[in-house]
Amino acid sequence: MKIATFIYQQQRCVGQVDPEAQKIGIFDISQSQAKNGAQYIIELLANGETLPEIRQSVALADVILEAPIIRPRRNIFCVGKNYLDHVKEVAKSGLGSGTTSSAAAPEYPIFFSKVPESVIGHQASILSHEGLTEQLDYEAELALIIGKQGRGISQEEALDYVWGYTIINDVSARDLQKRHQQWHLAKSLDSFCPMGPWLVSKDEINHQDTLVKCWVNGELRQNSSTSQFIFDISTIIATLSAGITLYPGDIIATGTPSGVGMGFSPPKFLKSGDVVTIEIDGIGKLENTVR
Ligand code: MG
After folding, report:
1. Are 240 and 165 in contact (CB under 8 A)?
2. What's the number of domains the chain is made of?
């Protein structure tokens, strides 16, 4: 099941996508229920209720996709350095921050977060923030969506708490990340969290071996698989939830593989006009242009 949030005839809607038929079935919910997009559907299902009826089916070409969850209820949790090849390129670039600049795999998962207001949808513009950063970078990531409330979730039970997945671009200002010795500020600027194009339920994805690819202006930059994770999804959920309650609709980005702009010599940072396209197997493509 693929659930999208979109504008159709000037109204925000939530619906079920059929990519083969290029159609979206619009759920029969009110404007206030659709206000935060697919968050309403995730909460409905978490409460044991069934999906709303489909009111109308429309062509995918006739809608404007928005971020599937317009404004996450709290910060997006992110895992740093979860692919060994990326850990090595960060160390080599000299752009690692604080105590995390080592080339060794971290012993425990590293967490940081992005503010909810940084979220934008498919085709929305990534702001270049000229004058503030000169080292704008991309990070293709598989993000998981929590479907059930829990704390102290064991590794064995962890996947029961996953509703599904989406794509996130963990856009980063490398100069800010180095200057401020931490990732939160440098990764939370307005528009720094492209998300989409929609949510996909977990049954449609092999999370243990899903391809993650990223192109800039058509040039393939990142090409890896979640089989390369240092910490798998069960470990990430168990670690994060040990003392923090997770709620339906919470989003956890699982880290990026090698091939980010700062990993090249010389670095290939983003500039206005660049088009970043991320594709993850079983989800689709998330594309955004820098402005
Ligand atoms: Mg990242």
Report:
1. no
2. 2
Range of the domain at 12: 2-65
Give distance in angstroms: CA of 113 to centre of ligand 1.
Answer: 10
CA of 73 to the centre of ligand 1 (A): 20
In which residue are the tokens 């670690």 written?
A: 239
Task: Compute the distance from residue 1 Cα to the ligand 1 centre, in Å.
Answer: 26
98 Cα: distance to centroid of ligand 1 (angstroms): 16
**CA–centroid distance, residue 108 to ligand 1 (Å):** 16
Q: How far is the CA of 275 from the centre of ligand 1 (A)?
A: 18
Residue 141, domain member (yes or no):
yes
pLDDT in tens, the chain (291 residues): 999 999 999 999 999 999 999 999 999 999 999 999 999 999 999 999 999 999 999 999 999 999 999 999 999 999 999 999 999 888 888 766 554 567 889 999 999 999 999 999 999 999 999 999 999 999 999 999 999 999 999 999 999 999 999 999 999 999 999 999 999 999 999 999 999 999 999 999 999 999 999 999 999 999 999 999 999 999 999 999 999 999 999 999 999 999 999 999 999 999 999 999 999 999 999 999 999
**Domain assignment present for 70:** no
Query: In Å, what is the CA distance from 46 to each residue of 2, 75, 149, 163, 247?
Result: 17, 20, 8, 9, 9
Distance from the alpha carbon of residue 139 to the mean position of ligand 1, in angstroms: 6
Which residues, 6 or more positions from 137, have their beta carbon under 8 angstroms from its beta carbon?
A: 171, 172, 173, 174, 260, 261, 262, 269, 270
